[in-house]
Amino acid sequence: MIARGILDTIGDTPLVRLERLFPELDAQVFAKAEWFNPGGSVKDRAALSMLLGKIESGELAPDRSVVVESSSGNLAIGIAQICRYYRLPFVCVVDPRTTEQNVAILRAFRAHVEIVTEPDDRTGEYLPARIRRVKEIVGNLPGAYWPNQYANPLNAKAHERTMHEIATALDGRVDYLFCATSSCGTLHGCVTYVREHGLSTTIVAVDAMGSAIFDGDSSSSRLIPGYGASVRPALLEPEDADGVVHVSDLECVVACHRLMWQEAILAGGSSGATVAALQRMSDRIPAGANCVCVFPDGGDRYLDTIYSASWVRRNFGDAEHELFPPDELEGGVRDHHSP
Ligand SMILES: Cc1ncc(COP(=O)(O)O)c(C=O)c1O
After folding, report:
1. CA atoms of 186 and 143, how far apart (whole Å)
2. Helix%, strand%, coil% for the chain, nearest 5
3. How confident is the model over 125-149, as pLDDT tens digits?
4. Residue intervals in the chain for CATH 3.40.50.1100
5. How many A from CA of 314 to the centre of ligand 1?
6. Which residue stretches of 212-294 are H helix?
7. pLDDT, tens digit (0-9, with 9 covering 90-100), for 238-279
8. Whole-angstrom Cα distance, residue 280 to residue 257?
9. What residues does the Tryptophan synthase beta chain-like PALP domain cover (predicted)?
């Protein structure tokens, strides 16, 4: 296929069979490898969905519009790429926890990055402070458009196609779908497709321990960005999920390393979380089931955290020795087995 420009390569990501991860499980496990999108994540789909209609209708145009969004990660990168493609200015409001790498990518696409330096007085969280700043900018800047991923139905709409791709690849037999959640766009879009097409898929929402999305205990801090949220998103319909699994930071990190050792997949944190959730439910999965984990992004955005020995040591102490066994070159090359 010859793509008509880079944005034409969003979607149609591979569905990859994971044959080694759960040898004891009499079921097929697949990963929907969303880092194959050109901006590196599942959020390219949402970004395109929220912008394209307005671009095509002429409502957004380079000479009179500015896109403004609060996102510190994948959505921001997706929007930055689309805005560059269509020559739209983009103001991205981030906070000091945004990784240097993400800020560098945003600046490489010539997004204007504005860093909110103080958290919200009342909650101590950065998100409300970022949203306040977005509203200020939008209020003062003629032609400003705020996609607002947390409440925009077009975010969820994008993922009806994600589920269509999964269902088509498996001839409609998707028994379990494990979906990490933040804005809940992926979850809601996939569920909408499942319902509209009468699929008998059990939908498992995967949330971070410490997140406020599904009645979790939101008092503890979370280390892994991408999934989980400090407020419940407007897109969430509580009946969307047949089950919810809350995954701890350590479980998530261990699962990412298992994916790397066993499948040679360098996955992002929330991908590992879906694997940890599947593991937790494995004794309930019937023989022959098709289980799909949506893998939202790749591990290259987590080299300083999940895949860094010093970060693992700082946050999880002894787990470092299990996840980073001694160098295989010490004493000659040995056959490595996964932790
Ligand atoms: C890495 C990662 N995982 C999971 C999600 C959750 O996706 P959604 O916002 O559709 O719930 C996101 C969203 O930004 C993400 O970046």
Report:
1. 29
2. 40, 15, 45
3. 888 899 999 999 999 999 999 999 9
4. 6-36+152-316, 42-145
5. 25
6. 249-258, 269-281
7. 899 999 999 999 999 999 999 999 999 999 999 999 999 999
8. 17
9. 7-297
CATH number assigned to the domain covering 6-36+152-316: 3.40.50.1100
Amino acid occupying residue 80: A
Q: Name the residue of 148, 154, 183 whose CB sits within 8 Å of the most ligand 1 atoms, as the mutation to test its pocket.
A: 183
Distances from the Cα of 32 to the Cα of 13, 235, 243, 268, 286, angstroms: 7, 22, 20, 13, 21
Nearest CA to ligand 1 atom 1: 226
CATH-assigned architecture of domain 42-145: 3-Layer(aba) Sandwich (3.40)
> Distance between CA atoms of 337 and 339, rounded to whole angstroms?
7
Residue with structure tokens 């309930």?
Answer: 284
| Structure token pair of residue 335 | 């056959």
How deeply is 334 buried, as exposed, middle or buried, from its count of CB atoms within 10 A (0-12, 13-18, 19+)? exposed
